[in-house]
Amino acid sequence: MNGNGHILSVRDLKTYFETEDGTVKAVDGISFELERGETLGIVGESGSGKSVTNLSIIRLIPEPPGKIVGGEIIFDGRDIRSLTIEQLRKIRGKRIAMIFQDPMTSLNPFMRISRQLMEITILHLGYTKAQAYEHAVKMLEMVGIPDARARVDSYPHEFSGGMRQRVMIAMALSCEPELLIADEPTTALDVTIQAQILELIKNLKQKTGTSVILITHDLGVVAGMTDHIIVMYAGKVFEKAPTRELFKVPGNPYTKGLLRSVPDPAHEHGKALYQIPGLPPDVAHLPAGCPFAPRCERAEEICRQEFPPFVQLNQEHFSLCHFAEEVYANSRREVEQKQAARQQQDENQR
Amino acid sequence: MKDDRPSNPPEPAKTEPAFTPLGTPPEPPVRSREGDIIHTSPELAVGEGDVRTAERGIQEPLAGTSLWKDAWRRLRKNKLAVFGMIVVVIVALVSIIGPYIIEWTAGFSYDTIPRDVEKIRALPPFRDVNGNFSWLHPMGTDTQGRDILSRVLMGGQISLMVGLISTFVSLIIGVAFGATAGYVGGKVDNVMMRFVDILYALPYMMIVIVLLAVFGAETALGQLILLFVALGAVSWLTMARIVRGQVISLKNQEFVLAARATGVSTSKIIFRHLVPNTLGPVIVYATLTIPQVMLQEAFLSFLGLGVRPPHASWGSLAADGIQNIAIFPWQIIFPGVTMALTLFSLNFLGDGLRDALDPQMRKT
């Protein structure tokens, strides 16, 4: 959080997939920066390019059909795109680690937990087997696996989903990476375990000072975890802002729609939950204008004709919309009205 | 979270604790426990952890029930497979030590041609020279007066060795080839598998016969080694296809991506992560390849291309025996029955293993 330089800066990243149906621009000109120790949330619907962005960062895009066609990925001063596979392999797992969505399938079912945890430290830190084994036990204890020493030699199927995700986190943090990419780490888990896992990541992050990129489609998850958020739609960044700013005063109709469609426990009973009309667009055949225009309440003719500009709303707040200023102003006004209303209420009660 | 909705007024002091996932209350019990875990006690992840362990208490950690233990348990329930396994083990053991015991007790080996050949040749089972009952030659003797039991056992050694070594050769080639083709994919896969298709299209027995005829070795041992290689080299094709198919279905699983994301090299991913996952089908197919190869060996030896005298295999014994089938039927019956029994047993065992390792059949 204190500005000792960017650990990662992605500039105009473009990752395309060649399919029979045409070129799918899964990620089309994404830019963002991540400071050391910071947590960045990437939010978006399925198919908005969140995961592709992050696979691109460590060049794990299945190639072919995928290809990073443009942009820069500067990790700690070096462009990931210019590295050889050998150099890249030394970064993967050691300096940039990933946690995947489904803990049920992301551990090798035929390898003992110990061996899977040992593999990475033997590979990257040059540990002996005995050292690696001790380290594996230590890591399991750190992520809260009870009786770690007795369980380290288990097979993955003997662990529950939440525990496997803990093992994945232990594995990811084994080499104390500088950047942790968590790709929907809690999607496959039930809600109580979600909370535990998120809390675990948060605590470990504080301990180790790792920077984190948290990908999710769950706004609740990013709200509690992140410093900055980028909202993605159809392979583009639609809004980029500090977390609280984004939740308070969204400057993009899409973000507003997303926020309105989050189920709220205090939601009025019997009232239908808001949903954004329509479906996410087919990224192989995007319309000329704003990709969100067909679903947007605020859309006008210009939205269908011209691609919207990336408007800077304040120092850290950007929004991709023709009417960004207007939407932003509306959000501010709403906030002020609510605030005023509440103050009124408080005074009345007194 | 709800307080941060744009509709609500911002009040820094209030919004701060409300930045929790999905409307969870500020201090849910789960969270506080979780906090404890990290800093102090390892006592509980049981809240979400392994229920079985929780029930048994942590003092008694769950003993691993691996796939292999499960499979072994199921295999033992399959009577036919157990029968097959027992027969195979007995045949193997007796073949290995039997000839030496006979040599030690009775004084002749499988290739001993007795001095009084004229009298001893072609004795019926359990008969001595005078036609009385005798334990000396339980399977009789052949036309050279050699003990058939010794020869069948010695032939068993060779036949089993051919089966095992050739299968091993085919296993190595097939797994390496199939796994590489499957994992690399694309054009490489295409070229490699078309090569397999071409080999498939050729009549493999012809290849073996040509190989054996062209490279026919000087010594009997050389011939044997050539036989291993030739049979192994033609029976890896199906293995390669099976392994390729398995690898293709496995390589898109997340654990492979996870391994790549931790910087594991391609060869290690193939041989450390993927190949062990294909072991189930590979073992089953290997067990079924053994009898197949043994049968091919018998066929080749029967044609006179396989094992050369003085070595014997079940095939060459049958070839010898068939010449006198009308007069001395035991000369073909004993090697034939032994071979049939062994092949049946291996097939039963292979089928049993397939059922035991088939994930569809797995019960919890």
Structure write-up:
The complex is a heterodimer of chains A (350) and B (364). In chain A, a hairpin with a 2-residue loop joins strand 11 and strand 12. Chain A has helices at residues 50-57, 85-91, 113-125, 129-142, 148-151, 161-173, 191-208, 219-225, 243-248, 253-260, 301-305, 324-349, and strands spanning 6-19, 22-35, 39-44, 66-75, 78-79, 96-99, 179-183, 211-216, 228-233, 236-242, 310-314, 317-320. The two termini of chain A are 40 Å apart. The mean pLDDT of chain A is 82. Chain A has 350 residues and is of the alpha/beta class. Chain B is mostly helical. Chain B contains 15 helices and no strands. In chain B, helix 7 packs antiparallel against helix 13. Chain B is elongated, with a radius of gyration of 31 Å. Chain B starts with 11 loop residues before the first helix and ends in a 7-residue tail after the last helix. Classes of the chains: A alpha/beta (350), B mainly alpha (364). Chains A and B meet through helix 2, helix 3, helix 5, helix 6 and helix 7 of A and helix 2, helix 12 and helix 13 of B.
Secondary-structure blueprint:
The complex is a heterodimer of chains A (350) and B (364).
Chain A: E1 6-19, E2 22-35, E3 39-44, H1 50-57, E4 66-75, E5 78-79, H2 85-91, E6 96-99, H3 113-125, H4 129-142, H5 148-151, H6 161-173, E7 179-183, H7 191-208, E8 211-216, H8 219-225, E9 228-233, E10 236-242, H9 243-248, H10 253-260, H11 301-305, E11 310-314, E12 317-320, H12 324-349
Parallel strand pairs in A: 3-8, 3-9, 6-7, 7-8
Antiparallel strand pairs in A: 1-2, 1-4, 4-5, 9-10, 10-12, 11-12
Helix pairs in contact in A: 3-4, 4-6, 6-7
Chain B: H1 12-15, H2 29-39, H3 51-56, H4 67-77, H5 79-106, H6 117-120, H7 148-184, H8 186-201, H9 204-214, H10 220-234, H11 237-251, H12 254-261, H13 266-302, H14 314-322, H15 330-357
Task: Record keyword descriptors for this entry.
heterodimer; A: 350 residues; alpha/beta; eight-stranded mixed sheet; four-stranded antiparallel sheet; 12 strands; 37% helix; globular; B: 364 residues; mainly alpha; 15 helices; 66% helix; elongated; disordered N terminus
